[in-house]
Write a structure and sequence with these properties.
The chain is α+β, with helices and mostly antiparallel strands and about 300 residues long. It has helices at about 5-20, 25-40, 50, 275-285; strands at about 50-55, 60-65, 70-75, 80-85, 85-100, 105-115, 120-130, 135-145, 150-155, 165-170, 175-180, 185-190, 205-210, 230-245, 250, 290.
C-alpha cells in the first residue's frame, strides 16, 4: 500500500466515522473503528495473467504491468470479461476492484463464482452503476442447483470508484460469507438439514464482466446509459485464492490438507467470531437496502426455508 493510498483510505474512513456518530456512541464508535481497521487490509498480490484469461470483448479487456493490473471496458459496441484458468471447490477468494467512475448509470460490473449446466451453483457480487454522486448498489445472490432468487443489496460506506477495495468470498462446506475490506456483509449458511440445497458438489470458476444493462440496472431501467461517457472501465488487482483447485475430477485438497497455497487451511472450517458477527449486524442494519428474506409480498406462500436462519 502506498502512502497516498493509505492516507486516502484513512481520510475516507475517518470522514465516515465522523459523519456516522449516533446516540449510542460507544457501540457505534467501536464498530466504526473495526471497519476502519478492516478497510486498510490489503490482499497479497497475485499474478492476474497466470490465473485468468480474458474471454471476450475484442481487446476491451487488458492485462497491464505484466499482469499486475487487469482492466475491463465497455462501449456501445461491446463489454468485456474474463474467467479463471482454474476451477475451485471451496476456497477463500480475494480480489481488489475499482469500479467505473463518474456517470456509470446502466452499467453492471459482475464478479462471481459459477459452475456450468442447467443445475448450476453461483455466488454473485454485482455492482449496479448510478448517476454521478449517487451511490453504487452492491447486489449479492446465491444459486444452488439452478435456484437463485436470494438477493440482498447494500450501499457501501465509501466511494468504490475512488480507489481499490477488497471484495472477498469465503466458501466452505458450512457457509458462504461475502466480505468487503475484511468486513462481512452477508452470510449464507448451509441449511441442507431443512431441505435447502447448498453449493458443495460442483466446482466453480471465477468470472467477471462489465456490460450494459440499462433495461434494469439503474432505477429499474428508468436511467439509461450515457454513451458520451464511454468507454467505461473497471480495474482489478491483487488476486489471492486459498482454495481447493479442481482438476481431472479431483480436488487438490485432501480431508486433512485443505490447500497447498494455504498456510493452515483455517478457512475450510472458518466461521464468524463474535466481532465479525457484530460487524455483519452493523452493516446490515445501516447499509442493507433489500433482503429477500423480508419480502413477504414476493413470497406470499411463505418466505424461503433458509430465511429461518441468517442467510
Amino acid at each position: 500500500m502506498t502512502l497516498n493510498t493509505f492516507i486516502h483510505s484513512l481520510n475516507t474512513s475517518l470522514s465516515f466515522i465522523i459523519c456516522s456518530v449516533q446516540s449510542n456512541l460507544s457501540m457505534a464508535s467501536m464498530l466504526q473503528l473495526v471497519l476502519l481497521l478492516g478497510s486498510l487490509m490489503v490482499a497479497s498480490a497475485g499474478s492476474l495473467n497466470e490465473n485468468f484469461d480474458i474471454t471476450w470483448g475484442d481487446g476491451r479487456g487488458k492485462m497491464i504491468n505484466n499482469g499486475e493490473l487487469l482492466t475491463l471496458s465497455l462501449d456501445k459496441a461491446s463489454g468485456s470479461g474474463f474467467q479463471s484458468k482454474n476451477e475451485y471447490l471451496f476456497g477463500k477468494i480475494d480480489m481488489q476492484l475499482k469500479l467505473v467512475t463518474g456517470n456509470s448509470a446502466g452499467t453492471v460490473t459482475a464478479y462471481y463464482l459459477s459452475s456450468k449446466g442447467s443445475s448450476w451453483d453461483e455466488i454473485d457480487f454485482e455492482f449496479l452503476g448510478n448517476l454521478s454522486g449517487d451511490p453504487y448498489i452492491l447486489h449479492t445472490n446465491v444459486f444452488s442447483q439452478g435456484k437463485g432468487n436470494r438477493e440482498q443489496q447494500f450501499y457501501l460506506w465509501f466511494d468504490p470508484t475512488a480507489d481499490f477495495h477488497t471484495y472477498s468470498i469465503l466458501w466452505n462446506p458450512q457457509r458462504i460469507v461475502f466480505s468487503v475490506d475484511g468486513t462481512p456483509i452477508r452470510e449464507f449458511k448451509n441449511s441442507e438439514s431443512i431441505g435447502v440445497p447448498f453449493p458443495k458438489n460442483q466446482p466453480m470458476r471465477i468470472y467477471s464482466s462489465l456490460w450494459n444493462a440499462d433495461d434494469w440496472a439503474t432505477r429499474g431501467g428508468l436511467v439509461k446509459t450515457d454513451w458520451t461517457q464511454a468507454p467505461f472501465t473497471a480495474s482489478y488487482r491483487n488476486f489471492k485464492a486459498d482454495a481447493c483447485v479442481w482438476s481431472n475430477g479431483k480436488s487438490s485438497c485432501t480431508s486433512n490438507s485443505p490447500s497447498s497455497s494455504s498456510s493452515n487451511g483455517a478457512w475450510l472450517s472458518q466461521e464468524l467470531d463474535t466481532t465479525s458477527q457484530e460487524r455483519l449486524k452493523w452493516v446490515q442494519k445501516n447499509y442493507m437496502i433489500y433482503n429477500y428474506c423480508s419480502d413477504t409480498k414476493r413470497f406470499p406462500q411463505g418466505l424461503p426455508a433458509e430465511c429461518s436462519k441468517t442467510s
